[in-house]
Specification:
Length: 345
């Protein structure tokens, strides 16, 4: 038996949901680790192939098209073990099956934040987003030595994303008026980083799909985090893009709570920070402006990037959390995240 040799993302997409392609490899992994009798079930869609092995294990098969993901995820997961106040998966076994690397990991307890967000009150939402911010603060304080798998040339990363940003968003189908304003917006942004800044550990995809929560005494608490495949060492502000959009969702009070808990002083919640965060939004590898503008009603009438930035990043709106804007439509309701990790990533 063998796994397919993939030359392109299109080839991968064509077989992504074909169980006949993946189950032989998953069965072989189970056999190797004495899990031959374990029932397996396909996990949620993501960049790589995930199966649940009952009762408490996850098998993640890494697609060679995304060559560094296995080493990155393994290094980041090991680095944070025992250093966070929440649970993260632990690696039980690792190896290669027919040339493809895999990890067998412990399965996360609890539920994804996005699954319960709609049904909880505002005070619980504020408490949860503060806990997300506390995770960000903890990550920023961790040592970063001995992580060559996560080290990047930040100058190069930013330069490459700047050079490809217009074409990327145009291919996604973003409004031309928005796309045309990208070069000027990036040029006029405050410096995205200071020379000699200290790189910190970034997870770079803290979304409501990856944050896990559990109910305790009638309230939901953050109890775990899943997915380290996008981890790298870089500028702290880059980390805020995913939770700032996917969890705060244009809500000034939620965003304020997130930023304050992430270590931003209240005096920094101003137009300069909004401009910088919007610039990093444009440079983020997963951001699709067309999808964002289709998802958030607050953004749909934006004709310029300045207007879009004010809708997505209302950092200086209101002075407190309790009196901030209610959720869309004035109701205590929400929607699923604006973007998810898919084989298109």
């Amino acid at each position: 038996m063998r796994l397919p040799h993939l030359e392109s993302l299109d080839e991968y997409r064509a077989i992504y949901h074909d169980e006949d392609v993946w189950l032989p490899a998953i069965d072989e992994i189970c056999r190797r680790h004495a899990l031959a009798g374990a029932a397996t079930k396909r996990g949620p869609d993501g960049t790589h192939i995930v199966y649940y092995a009952e009762p408490s294990l996850v098998i993640k098969l890494f697609v060679p098209l995304f060559g560094d993901d296995f080493a990155v995820e393994r290094a980041a997961m090991r680095h944070v073990q025992g250093r966070l106040s929440i649970s993260v998966p632990s690696i039980v076994w690792e190896g290669k099956v027919w040339g493809w690397p895999y990890l067998v990991m412990s399965r996360m307890a609890g539920r994804r934040l996005g699954d319960i967000w709609d049904g909880i009150g505002r005070e619980n939402r504020l408490a949860l987003v503060r806990e997300v911010g506390e995770l960000v603060t903890t990550l920023r304080a961790l040592p970063t030595e001995g992580l060559p798998e996560l080290a990047v040339d930040w100058d190069r990363v930013v330069a490459e994303q700047v050079s490809s940003c217009v074409d990327r968003q145009r291919e996604h189908g973003a409004p031309e008026g928005i796309v045309a304003g990208i070069p000027g917006y990036l040029t006029s942004a405050p410096p995205l980083y200071d020379e000699g800044f200290r790189p910190v550990l970034l997870l770079a995809d803290i979304t409501d799909e990856h944050v896990y929560v559990s109910e305790r005494d009638g309230r939901w608490r953050m109890t775990g985090y899943l997915d380290f495949g996008d981890a790298m060492l870089g500028h702290p502000d880059y980390e805020m893009v995913a939770p700032g959009i996917d969890i705060a969702r244009c809500d000034a009070g939620i965003l304020r709570a997130l930023l304050l808990a992430s270590g931003y002083d209240a005096s920094r919640l101003d137009d300069a920070l909004r401009h910088r965060l919007m610039a990093y939004t444009l440079l983020h590898r997963y951001v699709n402006l067309k999808e964002i503008m289709g998802f958030f009603p607050e953004t749909r009438d934006a004709a310029t990037l300045e207007e879009l930035a004010h809708a997505l990043w209302p950092v200086d709106v209101g002075g407190g959390e309790a009196g901030a804007a209610t959720d869309r439509g004035g109701a205590e309701t929400g929607d699923e995240g604006a973007a998810g990790e898919t084989p298109d990533a």
